[in-house]
Amino acid sequence: MTSTQTAATRRHRLRPALRPALALGLAAFTALSLTAVPAGTAHAQEKRLKAWGNNRSGQLGDGTWTDFRTTSTTVLGLTSAEVEKIAAGGGGSTIGHGLALLKDRTVMSWGANSSGQLGDGSVFSHNAPGQVVNLSDARDVAAGGWHSLALLADQTVVAWGRNNYGQLGNGTNSDSSVPVRVEGLNKVVAIAAGLNHSIALREDGTVWAWGYNINGQLGDGTSASRNVPAPVGGLTGVTKIAAGCNHNLALVGPPSGGTKPTSGNAVKAWGYNATGQLGDNSTINRYTPVDTQGIWLGGVSQIAAGCNHSLAVTDSDNKLKGWGQNTSGQVGDGTTDYRITPVPVPGIKGVQLVAGGREHTIVLLGDNTVRSWGANGSGQLGNGTTTESSTPVTTLTALTGVDKIAAPVGGDFSLAN
Fold this sequence. Notes:
Elements: H1 26-33, H2 42-45, E1 48-54, E2 68-79, E3 83-92, E4 95-102, E5 107-111, E6 126-131, E7 138-143, E8 147-152, E9 157-161, E10 176-181, E11 188-193, E12 197-202, E13 207-211, E14 226-231, E15 238-243, E16 247-252, E17 266-271, E18 286-291, E19 300-305, E20 309-314, E21 320-324, E22 339-344, E23 351-356, E24 360-365, E25 370-374, E26 389-394, E27 405-406, E28 413-416
Antiparallel strand pairs: 1-2, 1-28, 3-4, 4-5, 5-6, 7-8, 8-9, 9-10, 11-12, 12-13, 13-14, 15-16, 16-17, 17-18, 19-20, 20-21, 21-22, 23-24, 24-25, 25-26, 27-28
């Protein structure tokens, strides 16, 4: 939905406690939502979820359709204290949506909704958070291009949104604007969403995938899309997963109770590889997992994927390596050269969290500050400019004590809490 659409077609949705008494006057509600809270009140002093970058779909959740923000704006109605986890999705530079898992195990959503990716039973976009329906026991969330996932307390998965390639995993190819059960999947401990596919890590260390597969992103040795989960071939002992637009990463740890090998934990990758995002020293698509090149001395603690680039944090010193597409400097090595094997990101250490967007990267450092680099045409680096940077810049989050960050796999905005 664009900023030229009328207020009457923009549907705003707040959780029940924040809905006005009358269901009429939605446009008026936006104006009321933006009224400043008087300084000095308890409400004004509460920390808030923040967002910056492109906002054409309302993906910043601040009650406006302002084109973009180059510094952080406040997501309406959500205090930092009540937010357990955050996720960001998006299928293009101006398309995006956000998810927030609250401590009461409900999920809030905002932004683009043309395929029902907000899970509110409609296909109307909205620029302020509202509740995902029929969902009260979530433990984790993930957001793809136009679809969303939630991991439930019983270790099953539900999904909602676009389903043209079967990315909802419910045995159909029909979109759903409400959560539907992913078929035949249990004992799940982690989830991730790509542009048009989904993956899940089970407690036995196997990875299961479903959805779009033309580039091998399901890792089953074929290019056939699937609308129910199937195991990724030859992959066991996995401890973490990450999904890019059309590729995936998995971190394979040492055996239970064992010690780390001298070469470190193994990073595996599969799927689309035209820009080297698999890190295997090639640009050949891989239909089953391959080893990312390099010796990871001390192991790897985290992995993350942007649209066509990949990232890993080393365990021993919390430093960062990146590889893949680097058109806008999203690898962070000071160049715009594509990297088909991992390279260090200079000057970055003490990394606590890392997230990749369409063509940008953000990290949370040990001092609870945020750094970003890469594309910045919509202000997604949050440093007050629209100038891209191939080296890290300071993100102006207006927050202290940040402990969560998110970026959309195919979009141009960022979240921090």
